[in-house]
């Protein structure tokens, strides 16, 4: 079945550093979504990408829809302590069921 | 604009019991999807409802069932609870045929 592979699995960085994470698949997707989840909360949509090659920013966050349509990247610039959380990539499943497939998540910890 | 809301926040049940979880969609959205998120994993799609009918279903047994009401709110019912049903249950709303889903805060279900 379709799978999304996120890397790295976890990151522990110093405040002020930039962060990069990615999501890859052997399947082609028409939409890529990036969510952030904090403990005990639901995922919050950060960025939605709808076109191959698209580069979209949301404040200090920038995400790109890979040209091959099989991958996506999320960058966070000048990290701050409130960036702590789990970042998930997601994409729609192949059947028209409304299903989103999620990666395993990248856990980000920021040291002040 | 009102976001997705879920109730209750937490719930404790014993094995074999039945549970009903509730979700109100974001204003303007007509489609509701339900996900199960086990600890340390990404959300897994249960099913989606549109026009009060199930549009698609993930790999979950029939004891997981749902309803959608004319005001687009939704319920998730789980019968014959098992220990493995302990998880965070997430509701997401969207416009019909849109891949972009917005999540609620979730209901934490513990089965003892």
Give a description of the structure.
The complex is a heterodimer of chains A (112) and B (112). Chain A is an all-beta fold and 112 residues long. Chain A is 0% helix and 52% strand. Chain A contains no helices and eleven strands. In chain A, strands 2, 4, 5, 9, 10 and 11 form a six-stranded mixed sheet that branches. In chain A, strands 1-3-8-7-6 form a five-stranded antiparallel sheet, with no helix packed on it. In chain A, 38% of the residues are buried. The model of chain A has no long low-confidence stretch (mean pLDDT 95). Chain B is an all-beta fold and 112 residues long. Chain B is built from no helices and eleven strands. In chain B, strands 2, 4, 5, 6, 9, 10 and 11 form a seven-stranded mixed sheet that branches. The mean pLDDT of chain B is 96. The A-B interface holds A 30-31, 33, 35, 40-45, 48, 88, 90-93, 95-105 and B 4, 6, 31, 33, 35, 41-45, 47-48, 50, 55-58, 88, 90, 92, 94, 99-106, 108.
Q: What is the residue-mean pLDDT of chain B, rounded to a whole number?
A: 96
Radius of gyration of chain A: 14 Å
Task: Please write the string of helix (H) and strand (E) elements of chain A.
Answer: EEEEEEEEEEE
* Continuous helix count of chain A: 0
Coarse shape of chain B: globular
What is the percent of helical residues of chain A?
under 10%
Secondary structure layout:
The complex is a heterodimer of chains A (112) and B (112).
Chain A: E1 5-7, E2 10-14, E3 19-24, E4 32-37, E5 44-49, E6 55-58, E7 61-65, E8 71-76, E9 85-92, E10 100-102, E11 106-111
Parallel strand pairs in A: 2-11
Antiparallel strand pairs in A: 1-3, 3-8, 4-5, 4-9, 6-7, 7-8, 9-10, 9-11
Chain B: E1 5-7, E2 10-13, E3 19-24, E4 31-37, E5 44-50, E6 53-57, E7 64-68, E8 74-78, E9 87-94, E10 102-103, E11 107-111
Parallel strand pairs in B: 2-11
Antiparallel strand pairs in B: 1-3, 3-8, 4-5, 4-9, 5-6, 7-8, 9-10, 9-11
